[in-house]
Amino acid sequence: MASPSKTPCLDPENIVAAVAQLGIGGTGPSLDAMFDGGQCRVYKLSFQDRESVAVRAPRHMSGGSPDGIISALRTEHETLQTLEAKGFRWAPECHGSSMTFDNPVRQPFLVLAWAEGSNLVWNKGCPPRPLRDTLLGQMAEIQASLIECTLETEKDCDHQKALLHRVLGRHVYDRTMAMDHGDFKPENIIVDADYKIKCIIDWAFAGLVPLLRAAGLPRFLWGTYPGCPSESATVGKDRQSYAAALATMASSGASYMRLVQASRSVNFCTIYVESLLSKNVHALLAEHKWKLPGCELLGDEDEEELRHSDFRG
């Protein structure tokens, strides 16, 4: 079993030394910035003769066992390698990793390509339209591309039985899987000065999920929760822009996203699928007796639409 023998030592000298042990380095190394995330701390390591790198290390060492920390980081590493192999261009390239506590910083870490730009600021008034709509179009393209390049079939997938057929329709037994980022939101989007999306960061929660979930509405387009009467007019317009962007795309990933997100039952479908994975969301639905204001289940019209639709395009 892996076990940290000493407190992590993330000072500049040790970070440079730990990265150099992986054969990654250059002249004049300097630690330019540090960013705290929910799960990890990220350091920007710059050189005079090569591009900067991001050193991503677990932030809360007490939050799990040493083996669990290594396993989570290894999963993220494998996710990024998979995306690179499949040609997904919005994830950072992984240059290397140390899956041990026996290194100069005394904890495991990843070394990623540094994404130049800034985190996307997203609130009711920023960015303004039509720039906001253009960004939503880019996000929709990224979600569709992630689905497109990671589709595969899972042999065994458990589902909640109650209401399942009315939520999933003819796809109730569909075992197709695709990768979901797990935390696709503006804070994890890096843009340049012209608001072109350069990179999606923080893939710690990414993984293969049922295609219905991978193709669902991104969480930041839910409002308080899908169908909630307090859902803002801004979120409503954002969802319309997202749908309009999908309508122009020809990929099978975008086709299935249209099928899922354009359904009259999209609000309940989105929250229901989330309840399969989230205890809090499950409790919310149970509290509301599996009904939410403004949320509809599949009806006869939806079933007829699904019978004549095929996301495999």
Structure commentary:
By secondary structure, the chain is of the alpha+beta class. It is built from ten helices and eleven strands. The protein has a five-stranded antiparallel beta sheet with strand order 1-2-3-5-4, sandwiched between helices. A three-stranded antiparallel beta sheet has the order 6-9-10, with helices on one face. It is globular, with a radius of gyration of 21 Å. The relative contact order is 0.11.
What would the average pLDDT be, to the nearest integer? 83
* Oligomerization state: single chain
Number of strands: 11
Strand % is 15-25%
Helix/strand order: HEEEHEEEHEHEEEEHHHHHH
Give the low-pLDDT segments. 155-160, 305-313
The profile of the biggest β sheet is: 5 strands, antiparallel
Characterize this entry briefly.
The protein has helices spanning 12-20, 66-85, 131-150, 164-168, 211-214, 233-246, 252-261, 266-275, 279-287, 300-307, and strands at 30-36, 40-46, 53-58, 94-98, 109-113, 118-119, 152-153, 176-180, 189-191, 197-200, 207-210.
Q: What are the key terms here?
A:
313 residues, five-stranded antiparallel β-sheet, three-stranded antiparallel β-sheet, 10 helices, disordered C terminus
SSE layout and pairings?
Elements: H1 12-20, E1 30-36, E2 40-46, E3 53-58, H2 66-85, E4 94-98, E5 109-113, E6 118-119, H3 131-150, E7 152-153, H4 164-168, E8 176-180, E9 189-191, E10 197-200, E11 207-210, H5 211-214, H6 233-246, H7 252-261, H8 266-275, H9 279-287, H10 300-307
Antiparallel strand pairs: 1-2, 2-3, 3-5, 4-5, 6-9, 7-8, 8-11, 9-10
Helix pairs in contact: 3-6, 3-7, 8-9
